[in-house]
Amino acid sequence: MIRRLQFHSPLTRISSVHHRLFHSTTTNPSDYNTPCPPSPATTPDPLTPVNPSHLLRVCTILYQQQDSPESRLHTSLSRCDFDLTHEFFLQICNKFPYSWKPVYKFHKFSQTQTFNHTPVTVNKMLDVVGKSRNIDLLWDLINEIGHSRLVTDKTYKIAIKTLASAREMKKCVEFFHVMNGFGYGYNLGTLNKVIETLCGCKLAEEAKHIVLKLKEWIKPDGFTYKCLIRGFCDVGDLVEASKIWNVMVDEGFDVDIDGVEKMMETLFKTNRFDEAMKLFQSIDDLGLSTYKLVIHWMCKKGKLGHARKVFDEMRERGIQPDCTILGSLIYGFLSNGRIREAYNIAESIERPDISVYHGLIKGLLRLKKANEATNVFREMIRRGCEPTMHTYVMLLQGHLGKRGRKGDDPLINFDTIFVGGLVKAGKSLEASKYVERVMNRGVEVPRFDYNKFLHYYSNEEGVVMFEVMSKKLREVGLFDLGDIFERYGQKMATREKRRERDRSNSQIVT
């Protein structure tokens, strides 16, 4: 039996928590089939390329005449020679992702043409209106879409997420009643998908309100409560998460190990180490994932002695560690300056994966050993382990610092490179703001974003740029940095070739 939890006081003991995935009591939302009424036949147009000049002309008219009378706007659009397809409508929505008026005006124009919406197009339009926070128009469109029989689960998620973000809680509940009036019914699977979406957006309180208000019509199951527990843990509200836990137990649902680990992780994140360990010690049926979580956080908090004890206990229970656990231990040893022990663990692993190499690189960088970390980077490539974006970001931060390198030599001045990348990516406003902050030396320049830097150059231009850049870096003696950028450029070149091959194959098929 699982006892109730109270997180405003020390944790009570949990007699047993088993590794279950809600076999009979909980169902994954994907297992449900929403009993939606049949939609009218709206076959999407064959995917044909949109003429860029036509798209630009229509977007210009929509932007310039969005406040004009409807008749004048429709006349201007009718004079444009363009094919109104579903793809064209979606492209219009993409051009105005946060502006409801041009999209809605184009929707009104489409109703005067031989154009039938599909669930994809109406959901895209609903998403734009939702992002612009026009709640009244959103509600009108919801009723219009319901009458048209184009409602899908995504419609539920877009509408409820928008209403919940705007704290329109009455409308959130009323939405389900309105959809029931259109013949879509009260469906647990749809509710679970909505609750999962809200909790993923850190709207756990709003999700709980919807569940409670709809309980008379839709009885929540174990998956519903699991989503709520994770949602409250994500926002750091363990008191509310424990209340949901207790309700779940009282209604006879089993709490699976994922829910327990989520609570433990939240306790670790909020520096409530003792309570997390009490929860860990109260679990009878411990598995690899739980040990992995505890060892990771112990090593991260510098509690290496505790981590070794938990690791030894795991081995005594016959549970073999995986590379993720060993990578955490390697990082823990390196963080404490115990380099030889860390390398002994790494050398004992027959087939190390990227978590082991990341543990080595991160630990060495913490010891200010960027050159050794780069050697580990070369070794992982030699042994066939492909670096990720996180690998490159760690190495760049280790060599250049988290605020980037500002040197007199323009060849290695990362302010210049970053601004150039912003301009080439079409982000001139961001580039000008960054330059203003750099020029005004009285204002501290924010942290250099290596993720954006690499992302903006992850294209054909970046392939050439990284190749030239690596040569320039080697010329000034920065061989490690040169190797890092050369490897990233090779990765981008391979990716571009693969994309080009895929495009060629798709053209051959068509």
Question: On the 0-100 scale, what is the average pLDDT?
Answer: 81
Total helices: the number is: 26
- Estimated radius of gyration: 28 Å
Distance between the termini: 60 Å
Compute the number of strand runs: 0
Largest sheet: none
Helix coverage percent: 55-70%
Q: Give the SSE string.
A: HHHHHHHHHHHHHHHHHHHHHHHHHH
The dominant shape is flat
Structural class: mainly alpha
Low-confidence stretches: 9-36, 506-510
Strand content: under 5%
Notes on the protein architecture:
The chain is mostly helical and 510 residues long. Helix content is 65%, strand content 0%. Among the domains are: 188-254, no CATH class; 403-510, no CATH class. The chain has helices spanning 52-64, 70-79, 86-95, 100-110, 119-131, 135-147, 153-165, 169-181, 188-200, 204-213, 222-234, 238-250, 257-269, 273-281, 288-300, 304-316, 323-335, 339-348, 354-366, 370-382, 389-400, 414-424, 428-439, 450-456, 460-475, 479-509. Residues 35-47 have a biased composition (Pro residues). It comes from Lactuca sativa. Residues 26-47 are annotated as: Disordered. Belongs to the PPR family. P subfamily. GO terms for molecular function: mRNA binding.
